[in-house]
Amino acid sequence: MDERRVDFERELEDLRETFNSGETRSRKWRKTQLKGILMLVKENEKEIFDALYQDLGKHQAEAFRDEVGILLKSTNYALAHLKKWMTPKKIQLPYVAFPTTAEMVSEPLGVVLIFSSWNFPIGLCLEPMIGAIASGNTLVLKTSELAPASSSLLANLIPMYLDNKAIKVIEGGVSIAEQLLEKKWDKIFFTGSPRVGRLVMAAAAKHLTPVILELGGKCPAVVDSLETAMDRKIAVKRILGGKFGCCCGQACIGIDYILVEKKFAPILVDCLKARIKKMFGENPRETNSIARIINKQHFLRLKSLLNEDEVKASIVYGGSIDEDNRFIEPTILLDPPLNADIMNEEIFGPLLPIITLKNIEESTQFINSRPKPLAIYAFTNNEALKENMVSKTSSGCLLFNDTIVQYFVDTIPFGGVGESGFGRYHGKFSFEAFRHEKPVIRRGFMPDIWFRYPPWNSKKMQFLRSGLVYNYFGFVCVMLGLKKS
Amino acid sequence: MQTLRLEFYSNISYFFSNKNKQKYKKQLISRNSVTSVSFESVVLMAEEKKKEKFDVESASLLVKELRGTFASGKTKSYEWRVSQLKSIVKMMEDNESQITDALSKDLSKPRFESFVAEISMTKTSSKLFLKELKHWMKPEKVKTQITTFPSSAEIVSEPLGVVLVISAWNYPILLSLDPVIGAIAAGNAVVLKPSEIAPASSALLAKLVEEYLDSSAIRVIEGSIPETSALLEQKWDKIFYTGNGRVGRVVMTAAAKHLTPVVLELGGKSPVVVDSNINLKVAVRRIVYGKWACNNGQACIAPDYIITTKAFAPALINALRCVLEEFYGKDPFKSDEISRIVNDNHFARLTKLLDEDYVSDKIVYGGQRDEASLKIAPTILLDVPENSLIMQEEIFGPLLPILTVDNIEESFDLIQSKSKPLAAYLFTTDKKLEKKFVSTISSGGMVVNDTVIHLTAHTLPFGGVGESGIGSYHGKFSFDAFSHKKAVMYRGFGGDASARYPPFTPKKQKLLIALLKGDIIGAILALIGWV
């Protein structure tokens, strides 16, 4: 852990100065920077793939799907909509205020801090940056030290492609993070664990800095007793893709556990077993179709989750581990004890517990007795169950019959609730996350409503009584002297 | 003996809320049956109960109870929300005179002002919700993209759970009920902690809320720091705080422990820039209205100070003087149309601001004070030093410093050198100046050629930025402040793109690229193997 005391003062002053110069407010600047991100990603695709392989052993197709490709899509979306987002929005006012116009002006917040995470070390850095830049802020990006190759790649590339006076990368570990948190920011965007999220928010409170916390949680997948073979096949593909095919389960929206009816469990387990082999090969360690565990510490954490006797006994598939290569085989567990750590901590790795219920309707109750997750997945054709899931459970998002793809959609907000965080981003919501929407009212000097002012009498009171509840008829009556006060 | 005890029980029962009553009754009965407890010890027990403070334990019990109500799903129904909102309207209508009396006791608030700024605004707010709620509760359909075709998506507004509203003393009714209305409309259970600095209003709210609203889901807890601390220890799903930045920081720090999102409605020094090319009479009336007719400057969006040009200052002061006399007469202490200072502490704070060296000699109008009646006359000061307390702290009272600059555009630098205010006002007919003001000054809200009226427009969000707060409310924004916007996406089992899954082949990568780019032709070409 690095103990160096770094003086960011000059960098921060630079950023403040750049922001105050007003340069970052222009649409031209924002556009140039967004195009810079596009160029950065396009021209360095290979370097990015290499860094992700080095840090996490990610296959390049996975890296493209989850990081490079998404970034290109999001940046293009922001570029296409920037003008519309920046245009002030006209607002209707009640007639009492006539003649008055009102609009909402989106203005940048100032200097913002983005704390990124190691599991998607390129995507989770640049995705929030798109929002911060689109809304005209200057920013510091603190990359995760746990993905060193990606971190240093970004630290090298960003100054080459983006405006150095407005966008800075600071690399480092805990001590650097703590020092950054002492400073005053206009917004802090954090992706990571609830434990650190609490520290970030407490530090932000000192300066009244608003925060967005993108955390995780135990995301359940509810699997109804699907009837047709086709449905089963697709559901299983999507479950495996959403669990092991997404950074080896190290994703905040990855499936944490499955809820299924007791009688359907054996069928599901069989389908999963068969499909795992097809998807990841007989020996996934060699085929490189699955990512590695980020580091030794996390490896040991996962190992200890598996080590409890009763948990070990519940393994129905996989379970082999290779400490030297930090590789854990895709592992399925059937009904591990509910009080075991594996059912109480976020797993964040390739272990998939399946919990059986007597009746699939009990799943809402099961989910509600735990902290609110970032995502709930439900595989079902039953409309009543769907309706129940929507109205009776709470989560950052709810996706039917698929996994992970909500992350790809620009039109829906991405973010948690309760323990899974607060604040949201993606698409327009990223722009909104980093702006202040300032209402601006414009009035002329005439007419001036005399009954607003003291000294007050009952006639003025009568006017206000009608005016404030928008009783225009009453209002006119008072004016004409037809209504007694 | 048994009857005696029951009689005794009924005598002391008024000390306890219904819930405690039940508990106490059970205790009493069980004790009676198991051991023979002497009458004296029951009395002692009752004495203890009476002294019992609202502490962390009682706060935790309260939250647990409300969580139970929320979990039952009762507060989620449209009917429940509507019935509560209707009761708030009724509560306002039935108790107009009680409310104005309480406000008069707490702040000597003129009846008229109480009606306009508290009763009527609370009613308007509830009525707006009653009219729009159904519409706001509907899930919002959104379009999805080719990448995930075929799919549909919607954004569902769901209640957060059990929320805490901590309100302020300056508009003790409005600032308590307006956020509560939002919380109820969004379907939450809510605890309201009114400010102890306005005791009459606080007690009235406690009484009325219990009488009119569903007490299994909506509660008022009165008290000061110990009670607030006990409440802040609990886990809430949202905390809505109106007050100052110092306490705002405490609230947010406490919220961090439970990852609770907060809305902080704070204040700040809201500036008024006055250009010389204006209709002076109207402008000054609007300034005087915003400053003194809104609770005598004790409002978070009241003008805090004025910046004008050196040349224009004498005319402005003269006009202010005229309008103040027109509104409040020669002796403002005789006028009952202006609020007083809320308490001794604030009176002392304000006189300290006035009595500072190099400030006390800058008074150009007013300056009279009467400690016994807690009154300070509308006071105007000219060119107080920049580093004086009155220019560093939020004034929150009837003192109005005027700063002068050579050129009106210099005012922008002055405003920007301070932290971001809740409101910024400009009086001008110069469109260029107006444009520059809008684009360079950051503030919660902004009004050109008037003051404070943005508060009344429910189509605009009300809230601060930077030091003036986090989050916003009013109208739909209140509903959103207490809702979680859940993304719900529906997919069928068809239309599965194998490219998403390993094992990855070059063909799959090409298809992925096309899909993520939203390039339909590319995707088709990749699918049929042309690229």
UniProtKB/TrEMBL annotation, chain A:
<feature type="domain" description="Aldehyde dehydrogenase">
    <location>
        <begin position="7"/>
        <end position="438"/>
    </location>
</feature>
<keyword id="KW-0520">NAD</keyword>
<dbReference type="InterPro" id="IPR012394">
    <property type="entry name" value="Aldehyde_DH_NAD(P)"/>
</dbReference>
<dbReference type="GO" id="GO:0005737">
    <property type="term" value="C:cytoplasm"/>
</dbReference>
<dbReference type="GO" id="GO:0006081">
    <property type="term" value="P:aldehyde metabolic process"/>
</dbReference>
<feature type="active site">
    <location>
        <position position="214"/>
    </location>
</feature>
<dbReference type="InterPro" id="IPR016161">
    <property type="entry name" value="Ald_DH/histidinol_DH"/>
</dbReference>
<dbReference type="InterPro" id="IPR015590">
    <property type="entry name" value="Aldehyde_DH_dom"/>
</dbReference>
<dbReference type="GO" id="GO:0004029">
    <property type="term" value="F:aldehyde dehydrogenase (NAD+) activity"/>
</dbReference>
<protein>
    <recommendedName>
        <fullName>Aldehyde dehydrogenase</fullName>
    </recommendedName>
</protein>
<comment type="similarity">
    <text>Belongs to the aldehyde dehydrogenase family.</text>
</comment>
<dbReference type="GO" id="GO:0009737">
    <property type="term" value="P:response to abscisic acid"/>
</dbReference>
<dbReference type="InterPro" id="IPR016162">
    <property type="entry name" value="Ald_DH_N"/>
</dbReference>
<keyword id="KW-0560">Oxidoreductase</keyword>
<feature type="active site">
    <location>
        <position position="252"/>
    </location>
</feature>
<dbReference type="Pfam" id="PF00171">
    <property type="entry name" value="Aldedh"/>
</dbReference>
<dbReference type="InterPro" id="IPR016163">
    <property type="entry name" value="Ald_DH_C"/>
</dbReference>
TrEMBL record, chain B:
<dbReference type="GO" id="GO:0009737">
    <property type="term" value="P:response to abscisic acid"/>
</dbReference>
<keyword id="KW-0520">NAD</keyword>
<keyword id="KW-0560">Oxidoreductase</keyword>
<dbReference type="InterPro" id="IPR016161">
    <property type="entry name" value="Ald_DH/histidinol_DH"/>
</dbReference>
<comment type="similarity">
    <text>Belongs to the aldehyde dehydrogenase family.</text>
</comment>
<feature type="domain" description="Aldehyde dehydrogenase">
    <location>
        <begin position="63"/>
        <end position="488"/>
    </location>
</feature>
<dbReference type="InterPro" id="IPR015590">
    <property type="entry name" value="Aldehyde_DH_dom"/>
</dbReference>
<dbReference type="GO" id="GO:0006081">
    <property type="term" value="P:aldehyde metabolic process"/>
</dbReference>
<dbReference type="Pfam" id="PF00171">
    <property type="entry name" value="Aldedh"/>
</dbReference>
<feature type="active site">
    <location>
        <position position="300"/>
    </location>
</feature>
<feature type="active site">
    <location>
        <position position="265"/>
    </location>
</feature>
<dbReference type="GO" id="GO:0005737">
    <property type="term" value="C:cytoplasm"/>
</dbReference>
<dbReference type="InterPro" id="IPR016160">
    <property type="entry name" value="Ald_DH_CS_CYS"/>
</dbReference>
<dbReference type="InterPro" id="IPR012394">
    <property type="entry name" value="Aldehyde_DH_NAD(P)"/>
</dbReference>
<dbReference type="InterPro" id="IPR029510">
    <property type="entry name" value="Ald_DH_CS_GLU"/>
</dbReference>
<dbReference type="InterPro" id="IPR016163">
    <property type="entry name" value="Ald_DH_C"/>
</dbReference>
<dbReference type="InterPro" id="IPR016162">
    <property type="entry name" value="Ald_DH_N"/>
</dbReference>
<protein>
    <recommendedName>
        <fullName>Aldehyde dehydrogenase</fullName>
    </recommendedName>
</protein>
<dbReference type="GO" id="GO:0004029">
    <property type="term" value="F:aldehyde dehydrogenase (NAD+) activity"/>
</dbReference>
